[in-house]
Amino acid sequence: RSTLSDWIGRCGVELEPLANALKEVVLQQRVLHADETPVTIMRMGENNKKPKKGYVWAYATTQYNPVQAVIYDFQDSRSGQHAEEFLKGWQG
């Protein structure tokens, strides 16, 4: 399990420049769709047996946009502050 976890962690680090570039492209669009979806998170450690709720926020271009893209942002709550921070500087 730890090997698979290490691979996933390394993939995340290696793909970060791609995710940042994709976010930049998405935030250049005039129209975006945004939505949050609840997900269950398993917490590690003996004292954390109860699952916790998190949210995957999706920011997508429209179907009519020549650039078809979606970027996902994981957060621990539904707070609009997360969207506000993600969209900081966006002019749409």
Provide an overview of this structure.
- The chain has one domain (2-86).
- It is an alpha+beta fold and 92 residues long.
- It has helices at residues 2-27, 80-86, and strands at 32-41, 52-61, 70-75.
- Strands 1-2-3 form a 3-stranded antiparallel β-sheet.
- Helices cover 36% and strands 28% of the residues.
Write a compact overview of the structure shown.
By secondary structure, the protein is of the alpha+beta class. Helix content is 36%, strand content 28%. It has helices at residues 2-27, 80-86; strands at residues 32-41, 52-61, 70-75.
Topology:
Layout: H1 2-27, E1 32-41, E2 52-61, E3 70-75, H2 80-86
Antiparallel strand pairs: 1-2, 2-3
Subunit organisation of the chains: single chain
- Give a short account of the largest sheet: 3 strands, antiparallel
Helix count, DSSP H or I runs of 4 or more residues: 2
Provide the helix percentage: 25-40%
Average of the residue pLDDT scores: 91
Within the largest sheet, what's the order of strands?
1-2-3
| Whole-angstrom Rg | 16 Å
Separation, N- and C-terminal Cα atoms: 43 Å
H/E element string?
HEEEH
Number of strands: 3
Low-confidence segments, given as residue ranges, are none
Categorize the overall geometry: globular
Structural class assignment: alpha+beta
Beta-strand content estimate? 25-35%
Number of domains: 1
InterPro entries: Transposase-related, Transposase_IS66_central
Domain Transposase IS66 central: 1-92
Protein name: Transposase
Pfam family, one: DDE_Tnp_IS66
